[in-house]
Amino acid sequence: MKTSSRAVWILFLLPAAALVRAENSVFPSVSVVPRPVAVKLLAGTFVLNGQTRIVAVDRESRKIAGLFNDFLLKQDGLHLRITVNRPKRENFILFSQVDSRALPEEGYRLVIGAKSIRIIGQPAGLFYGMQTLTQLLPLGLQPTIELPGLDITDYPRFGYRGVLLDVGRHFFSVTYLKKLLDLAAQYKINRFHWHLTDDEGWRIEIKKYPRLTDVSSYPKDPTTAHGSLALGDEAPHGEYYTQEQIKDIVAYAQARFITVVPEIEMPGHSGAAVTAYPQLACTHSALGNVLCPKEETFTFLQNVLSEVAALFPGRYVHIGGDEVQKDSWRQSAETQAIMKREGLKDEDQLQSYFVRRIERFLTTKGKLTIGWDEILEGGLAPNAIVMSWRGEGGGIEAARQKHKVIMTPSDYCYFDYNQGDPQREPASIGGFIPLEKAYGYDPIPKELQGKERDYVLGAQANVWTEYIATPEYLEYMLFPRLLAFSEAVWSPIEGNDYDDFRRRLPYQFARLDKQDVHYRIPEPDGLKDFYTTTDDHARVELSSLVPAARIYYTLDGSQPTDNSSRYQSPLQIPLQPEQKTTLNLVVIAPGGRRSVVYGATFQRRSYRDAIRFDAKQPGLTFALYEGKFTSAQSIELGTPAVRGITSSFDLQQFSRVFDYGISFDGYLTVQSDDFYEFAVESDDGSVLEIDDEVVVDNDGIHGSRVVTGHIPLRQGVHKFKLRYFQSQGGATLRVNWAGSGGELQPLVGFALYH
Ligand code: ACM
User: Fold this and answer.
1) Is the dihedral of CA 599, 603, 609, 611 positive or negative?
2) Whose CA is nearest to atom 2 of ligand 1?
3) pLDDT tens figures, 36-48
């Protein structure tokens, strides 16, 4: 396994002239996340020791200097004197707002010279400069610290860099939220979207309506309760935040330049409110989580929002607006009468009416209203900000209507989705956002042009907690994806480079370990899911991005433990003909935390002989079946609605939206004896067979997902069969293939016959 060498991480970002001293350096100089706008290496070294003074002239600077000192004490065992006067001698760290006006908002300049370290910025910039400086410090207690000369200019790409935590589904204690805010601030996140109410719980004390928390803040399953009760630092009541605790969190966040955005869900996702005050639901409504749009409800909401507005000094209040089950309004005579009175022609207009009234009220409180993209339906309230979660479409539409937008499309920003193979990951809500995908997100959609782009305020990473009951699991889902996200919202897009980000990760993992963060320990580099070969052995070379991690493995299908073989050098795995061998491994971080069990399957096998087939009509035959399928394997039980010939897998040609299945049958020619890789991406399931053998099993109801398989084929013709089905939601089907060593490319007509 590769050992981690900080010098190596530095090399990639520095100009050639800097290499010599970088190589000798022990500093993780530019392992900073998010990547700063500009970093220049300077001659000389600054020596930080017990005599170093912090100079902070004004009150804001002194507060930030104080946070820096706290950090230094915790991480490096140093505590420095803070003075208001610049010492005559050298050896000081200056925090100053002087000459900071020319810097972009939240920007800073950090100059590490031989005699001093200077951080220049407005207060937020000083704070971020301080965060960058802390990332340049080595880990562990040290009496003196040498820092390389650097000149960093830095500022954010977006002004809104958010993270959402859903405390409705599971509660997280005040003590824990402070840890989370510290971590978010380290990565220059500046908005905390606090999802405080939902069907499962109401988490904010409202003095006027005590039943909200008396009735609706208790965990349904007390065995999953944690946080306040477990930590013992809060009162033994239901799981909610008192107004004093809210103020405490708001102040804690504010000191870290994070604005708290409270969310009070309405008119849907309001089950907790309705349980506490059943009169808020429409009479005769079977669906109990939607508020009735009557005057009594508006009075209730205005009273709640008055208390909320007073507690949160930030400008934003989020009012939800997503996933309203409008049937409850359709079934309610009371609601239909209100619609008639207000001249509203459908339930979309009713929702729009609802949001407009609330927005008008919040405006009187000096607040800006944010809502999920459903608030577009029926017409946007005049100044509402749209949070685009069902893809980017809502955000694009809102920007075109000249409304501000925060991007949080579920395919990129829902960090409750899986990061790896769902078979190996802990139980989750589904989805798939591996680290590289999170890194690659650009909050500005290509569809927006010119001034339209200015309406995108930024983006937000969301953690919904249906499946996430503990801080450990929350951290597993957030880290390291939050680091990737921070780069997407802070760093200039031109410099985005996933490989470079990966090179900076080892130092970040070491820091997170030090801070007791239960980040996801990634699968080792060099590990594939599946290895197929005609050889009598396979070679596997592994390394981990986690510094000094150990890897233990088994080859007999058993679960690896600390007593299993330890990976030391590339494995030569012996393979028996026509038998599968399983590699299971676990990666253990220096602190003892373990990854999930990762693994691979190896197969030694002989070639599939070509078959005799002479007729060569281009294209495949297809058969389209209608029905509610749950598996591609079962679509052919009925009678096809349509049959035909096609030369592509493009689903558009079938003019269907939901509930159908297609089987493609024919023959495939390959030009040489080789190992062929097939990669099938599908939403929902698919199964690919070659010569009646399942090569790719991507079956089941799921979102877009790629599964690959390998098969050795002799030159010539082979039987080809692909089955696919679509239930509800997005539809995708793509088939790529490659010979050994080749790049995957679309499987197109030239190789397919019937
Ligand atoms: C949401 O995920 N329903 C906003």
Assistant:
1) negative
2) 389
3) 999 999 999 999 9
Residues in a beta bridge with 81 = 53
Catalytic position from the list 60, 151, 214, 323: 323
380, 395 in Cβ contact below 8 A?
no
H or E element at residue 109:
strand 108-112
Do residues 373 and 293 both lie within one domain? Answer: yes
Which residue matches tokens 């944010």? 370
Is position 370 within any domain?
Answer: yes
Same domain flag for 496 and 547: no
Of 372, 387, 416, the residue with max ligand 1 atoms within 8 A of its CB, to mutate for a pocket test, comes to 372
CA distance 336 to 342: 10
Tell me how crowded residue 653 is: count the other CB atoms within 10 A of its CB. Answer: 13
Length, in residues, of the chain: 754
217 and 197 inside one domain: yes
Residue 323: active-site member: yes
HEC per residue, 200-261: CEECECCCCCCHHHHHHCCCCCHHHCCCHHHHCCCCCCCCCECHHHHHHHHHHHHHCCCEEE
pLDDT score for 682: 95
How many Å apart are CA 322 and CA 198, to the nearest integer? 11
Residues 6 or more apart whose Cβ sits within 8 Å of residue 627: 635, 638, 659, 660, 661
Q: Which tokens hold the place of 533?
A: 């070969």
Number of domains in the chain: 4
716: left (phi over 0), alpha (psi -120 to 50) or beta: left
Q: If we measure between CA atoms, which residue out of 38, 41, 34, 36 comes closest to residue 11?
A: 41
- Looking at 94, 119, 154, the residue that finishes a domain is 154
CA distance 86 to 115: 12
Asked whether residue 556 falls in the same domain as residue 468, the answer is no
Cα 733 from chain centre: 24
Tell me: do 440 and 301 sit in the same domain. Answer: yes
pLDDT digits 0-9 by tens, 119-166: 999 999 999 999 999 999 988 777 889 999 999 999 999 999 999 999
CATH number of the domain within which 14 lies: 3.30.379.10
What pLDDT was estimated at residue 286? 63
DSSP-derived letter for residue 131 is: H
Whether 503 and 379 map to the same domain: the answer is yes
CA of residue 686 to ligand 1 center, whole Å: 28
User: Which structural domain, as residue segments, surrounds residue 401?
Assistant: 160-514
Pair 44, 113: CB distance under 8 Å: yes
Q: Which helix (H) or strand (E) holds 163?
A: strand 160-166
Ligand 1 pocket by Cβ (under 6 Å): 322-323, 372, 389
φ and ψ of 565, to 5 deg: -60, 140
In a domain, 297, yes or no: yes
| 439, two tokens | 């890194």
From start to end of 451-527, where are the E strands?
456-463
Q: Is residue 522 part of a domain?
A: no
Asked about 269 being catalytic, the answer comes back as: yes
Collect the ranges in the chain with pLDDT lower than 70. Answer: 1-29, 220-237, 284-287, 749-750
CB contact set of 628 (below 8 Å; sequence gap of 6+): 659, 727
Cβ 487 vs Cβ 504: under 8 Å: no
